[in-house]
């Protein structure tokens, strides 16, 4: 990330005016992305494969889908990509692999509720990192971030245990939330100059390689699954990876990391509702009030970003092409 001093907020934190003009489209794509990642937990729960292998295959399959598009339209861009953007993309892929590698094992070490609540502290770390980098997030961003996290805690609860294994799982989940914050911020930085396809191709490739190594070291089985399991892995790739993470990488350039990372908190109630409809798991009584609290927090963050990046009157009201 850039280290030179700035007298104004960095573009990675506050979207430029031209990008703000595209905000309605970005918000729509953000909603699709959240719906996509909300399928992640229910699909993982229903897939009979090791957690690390699931994480590997969702990235590897995404690379398989992206490769024809990259070969046709993005080879020139990849060749021209500067060393800094390339290294940041690789770093983003490594932090995404770290996120998966920390969070998925934590689910078997501590309660799912505690793991989810600790992992979704991502927007807090995003805001703190932005502050360390010199950007001063408006008070409404802090208030909205904390309010949204409170909404997740209302939904999941945090049942802190004194068991050593559970505490280790809690630490892994918290680390996963920090890794996700670094992933969002690195992606926002790269997306200032690189297309979504070029960035995600390098990012997912790095993630897949890192997770492949993790699977080989841990002995996680990478094959021998049933046809139903493979179909679920394909569904997970399409929903959570291509429609989820890829669209998050697309909108972070326009909406900024604060709004994007806060919106990811909606994955928790979204997953609960999907599990209720698909797996027959009744959502907790506080699911709907918690959703309202999360949405209120997200609204504060979006409003704060909008106030800090007003759209000039001479910009067109209708966004251009994607």
What does this structure look like?
With 322 residues, this protein is mainly alpha-helical. The protein has one domain. The protein has helices spanning 17-20, 23-38, 40-46, 51-80, 83-106, 112-119, 122-132, 139-156, 164-190, 196-218, 227-263, 267-278, 287-308. The longest helix has 37 residues, at 227-263. The radius of gyration is 19 Å and the shape is globular. The model is unreliable at 1-19 and 310-322 (pLDDT under 50).
Per-chain topology:
Blueprint: H1 17-20, H2 23-38, H3 40-46, H4 51-80, H5 83-106, H6 112-119, H7 122-132, H8 139-156, H9 164-190, H10 196-218, H11 227-263, H12 267-278, H13 287-308
Helix pairs in contact: 2-11, 2-12, 3-11, 4-10, 4-11, 5-9, 5-10, 6-8, 6-9, 7-9, 7-11, 8-13, 9-11, 10-11, 11-13
